[in-house]
């Protein structure tokens, strides 16, 4: 694991969530947040916009795609907030924080940014930005160059960059 992308909670429409934050199965319409991620990826690194929202390639490249809350009721964002997932994901972040090699944490949105205090290992890098949702992408996500900044932090830590 080289990178952790931390979001809020899973997509809440039928057949969207697949266990990787921001990812949707092949054949599922790409949600607006992921469209903004792809837009930033293109603007930052010139990578063509994928036709699929399935991000397994990123996961296999060392990117953990994690949300602060891991389940949701259909059609209701944040519907499982306060049920214990936050404590669980805190422990996951603490375990990653204990790793002896550099990990770059990308914290997307306020719920993710609140976890920054758990990342205390000076070997790690933390990049924060607004959430890529249409409601907040223009408040800092778009134009943030998170992908090139992540790769630069990996290189500085002696790791190979992600082939986004």
Describe the protein in words.
The protein has 164 residues and is of the alpha/beta class. Helices cover 29% and strands 12% of the residues. It has five helices and four strands. The protein has helices spanning 32-45, 56-60, 85-97, 110-113, 146-156; strands at 3-7, 63-67, 104-108, 125-129. A four-stranded parallel β-sheet has the order 2-1-3-4. Helix 4 links the parallel strand 3 (104-108) and strand 4 (125-129). The radius of gyration is 15 Å and the shape is globular. The model has no long low-confidence stretch (mean pLDDT 96).
Strand content: 5-15%
Task: Going across the biggest sheet, name each strand in turn.
Answer: 2-1-3-4
Give the proportion of residues in helices: 25-40%
Number of helices: 5
Order of helices and strands: EHHEHEHEH
Determine the N-to-C terminus distance.
Answer: 14 Å
Number of beta-strand segments: 4
Which shape, going by the Cα principal axes?
globular
Low-confidence stretches: none
Structural class: alpha/beta
Largest sheet at a glance?
A: 4 strands, parallel
State Rg: 15 Å
Average pLDDT works out at: 96
Task: Walk me through the topology.
Layout: E1 3-7, H1 32-45, H2 56-60, E2 63-67, H3 85-97, E3 104-108, H4 110-113, E4 125-129, H5 146-156
Parallel strand pairs: 1-2, 1-3, 3-4
Highlighted features:
single chain, 164 residues, alpha/beta, 4-stranded parallel beta sheet, 4 strands, globular
């Amino acid at each position: 694991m080289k990178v952790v992308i931390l979001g809020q909670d899973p997509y809440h429409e039928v057949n969207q969530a697949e266990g990787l934050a921001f990812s949707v199965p092949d054949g599922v319409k790409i949600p607006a947040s992921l469209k903004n991620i792809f837009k930033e990826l293109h603007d930052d690194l010139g990578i063509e916009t994928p036709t699929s929202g399935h991000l397994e390639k990123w996961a296999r490249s060392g990117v953990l795609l994690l949300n602060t809350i891991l389940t949701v009721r259909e059609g209701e964002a944040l519907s499982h907030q306060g049920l214990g997932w936050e404590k669980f994901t805190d422990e996951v972040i603490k375990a990653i924080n204990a790793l002896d090699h550099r990990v770059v944490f990308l914290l997307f949105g306020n719920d993710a940014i609140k976890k920054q205090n758990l990342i205390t290992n000076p070997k790690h890098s933390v990049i924060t930005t607004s959430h890529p949702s249409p409601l907040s992408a223009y408040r800092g996500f778009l134009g943030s160059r998170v992908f090139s900044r992540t790769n630069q932090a990996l290189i500085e830590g002696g790791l190979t960059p992600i082939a986004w």
